[in-house]
Amino acid sequence: MEGYGILTMANPYFSNVPNFDYVSRFPDALISEYVQVKNLFKRVKVPEDIFGDETNFTKYKIVGDERPDQIAFKIYEDPYLDWLILLSNNVLNFEHEWPMTEQAFYKYLLSKYKTGDLTEEESFNAVHHYETVEVKNSKGMIMIPKGLEVPQTYSIKYYDNGSLVNATNITDAVTNYEYEENIQEKRRNIFILKPMYVTLAINSIEELMPYKAGSSQFVSEDVVKGSNIRLYS
Question: Is the pTM of this model over 0.85?
Fold first, then answer.
């Protein structure tokens, strides 16, 4: 994520993240010496009046290898609002919850499925599992929906107009590639906070990020201090 907007001080989310006085681990540091760092574990509960209302969002489908900062620039004309794209979709782990790039996806398939003497094509096209096809009766009622994961030989029996029907051959194979591609495709469908609510979201972050007095670690609204375990070890 080198050069990624969410890690820069120009980012309005990151600039509001408070600090943490952490006991120094440098070899030549004094036993009581601290260093101040950004508290990346500090998270806020987003306000329900903004993020809890679906009408405040629009659907968006990620195109190709688009990153959050690129989408933020496209929608808000500000790449440093990439955090808002992630927050709107509750993405906590970018590497595992955002669609992979084409190159990363290929490497992932190789590492997960390439085995033995099978070629790449054979490995990717091997059967991952089987799913049902849609089965309807003569009146158009769905007896079995499409997409249920089942054994290859799965079958059902049901009555149709008084006759017993034994439905067989009602499964389709899903390859390793199709299975993983479906996961990536679902990740491409995200929600975008409408531009008219961006200022409200930023103001909420600014209000919720500061520390509250009352804790023994409290120093100020911008700083808390960790326990110095070096004094007791």
Answer: no
